[in-house]
Amino acid sequence: MKIVTLLNEKGGVGKTTLATHLAAGLAIRGKRVILVDADPQGHATIAFGLSKEPGFYDLIVRNAPFQKVLRPVAPERFNVPDEANSTGGQLLVVPSNIETRSIAGNISDAFTVLKRFNQLRSAIDFVFFDTSPTPSLLHSSIYMATDGIIYPTKCEAWSFDGLRESLTHKDQFSPIRQQYNLNDIKVLGVVPTMYRGRTLEHQDNLRRLQDTFGSLVWKPLPVRTIWTEVASARRTVFSLAPGSSTAEDAWHLVEQLEERMYEQS
Amino acid sequence: MSSRERRRKIQDEENLLFANPNTLDPKTADAIGFGLGELGLEIAAADNEFQPIEAVSIHEIHPNSIQPRYSIPHDLADIFAFNPKNVVDIFERWIIEVQLEKGQKDYDILNYLLGTATDRGERAETDDRDTAPAAHVASSKELALMKLIDLAASIRRDGLSNPISLVQHDSHYEIETGERRWLAYHILYWKFGDGDKRPDGSVVNWSRIPARIVTQVDVWRQASENNARDNLNAISRARQLALLLMDLHGWHNFSKLDRCDNEQAFYAQVADGSAWRIPRGQGERLLNAMGLSDAGQLRQYRALLRLPGELWRKGDDEDLSEGELRKMRAALDSVTRVTLPKGKRKKDTITRLAADATQWRNRLRKEINSVDVNRRPKIRKLIEAEIRQLLRLMADIDESDS
């Protein structure tokens, strides 16, 4: 089981959209995937038309069994309409609601999240954490659990600030993880989102990103209306517009992740 | 999919300005079910293995009557029924008895719990042997109390790292593992109450103890926990072995504790090794559970189940080792053996030897009864001398027989 976290301490950069599509893409490709909505807004939950309760808080604080918390996503919501392309993976969501923000105050053990998900180590291939932009003690617990992080960012100044803050906090956990014989967290990629290639501002900022992070910077995702449409339809782009160039972009993301994870192992 | 088709799918969804995705009605939840096939079964299995930790009131917890270790000295356990209502009474009585032994009226456990200055600490701080105050030799009762107080102090200072395990009954919980930790929480609640501010600044309610709830008392899990902590004395280990043997042979074969004359009689039901052999294929499991390396040690612990009652209680209260108990028992047995009539022998010799043996036995019993910790080495030497003497007496008998 690999645990991947989507992080940027700036809101509205595309963490949830990336999390839902990476999770869905791997599930379409035959993996057993859990998407944990760790943002009190619960948008990764409603992205698939699911109820926000019971949620992540119930799992971590009330010790609810996974069976009560995990919500399977109906294949028509995330999978391509032509079922021949599906290889039988499964996508499950741990929903989130306003209670998620209270998790941090109710756990004393930084390994709580890791311990809970380790229970499913043999049953699940990937766990994705979609996080909130505001750092909290819950983030600490996720830092202790995660194998790799993907940083979505707009090519804009405030998103860069959020990115820098996130990277600083990740580095602060390295010695703690070492102390417990955990591998260092792998930066799987920095993903420029909502990219407007015709503007000089975005061009310059993309160059800055590439200068700083080199090959860690993935192919930019252009800004497109279809991303908001998939949110309205509570589906993925694979399901709603399978033949579109946006779906191609999304598949490219999935391939990038598989490649980086392969490099990692 | 055309743009128009996409718009239709979007129109089919609820408008989030009005819909409330926060709640899921039970019917829908049931309808969703968990139709995940094999994955569903794997997740269910993972759930079954998970034992959540809960905070349980210490007043709703009762000790397990067949727990191998006696945390409370036998005489106090005899006076007080051991249940959550009178734990504080037991501690008060226990402390009074220790005060009487020490001749120290102001013996206050609060200093120990707070980690502030104590006579014990002062002695540790004195390096110079000449000026150091004479070392106080603690009785077994004081040592047992101090172990619990030290445990309580460490829990207050560092927190409880390992939750206890409980079985839930209709009106109460029963301890599977963690009786001493539960008693330590009682001490802390008695002295600090709820809302206590610990040295690190955190606030704790000592009336509630973190616990895992298990479905039933598992003597193998108990053994594993006790073995990992390496804190059972020889008598407790003998009890532990008896429980495991009873579990292997089936509990229905044995009388319950309340049907036995005393607690030792309950465990002694499996004392006969020929009647209650270790089932085939279970030897290794038993050795692992007991933390022992060979079958000889199992036999030695089983033999303790047949100790005379007074030696059993003394061994338990004073944490005597299996070797010490074996020697004491051997001495008593030898004395008893030579005093038994051995058929027609030379009357005068036998009478003389029997009288000698009775004298030795009475003396030995008296010494054993009066044994205290600081006299243990002396008693050991005495017993060894007794054994040598008894061997000589037995040799005399053999000689007179021939």
Please, could you describe this protein's structure?
The complex is a heterodimer of chains A (265) and B (402). Chain A is α/β, with parallel strands linked by helices and 265 residues long. Chain A has one domain: Rossmann fold, CATH 3.40.50.300. Chain A has helices at 15-28, 43-46, 56-60, 66-69, 75-78, 103-106, 112-118, 137-145, 157-179, 200-213, 226-232, 237-240, 245-264; strands at 2-6, 32-38, 71-72, 90-94, 126-131, 148-154, 186-193. A 7-stranded mixed β-sheet of chain A has the order 3-4-2-5-1-6-7, with helices on both faces. Chain A starts with a strand and ends with a helix. Chain B folds into 3 domains: 55-217, Conserved hypothetical protein from pyrococcus furiosus pfu- 392566-001, ParB domain (Alpha-Beta Complex); 230-319, no CATH class; 321-402. Chain B has helices at residues 3-12, 26-32, 38-49, 74-79, 87-102, 109-114, 119-125, 140-158, 179-192, 219-229, 234-249, 263-267, 283-290, 295-304, 309-317, 322-339, 347-369, 376-401, and strands at residues 53-57, 61-62, 164-168, 173-177, 196-197, 203-204, 208-214. In chain B, α8 packs across α9 and α16 packs parallel to α18. The interface between A and B is medium-sized, with 35 and 29 residues.
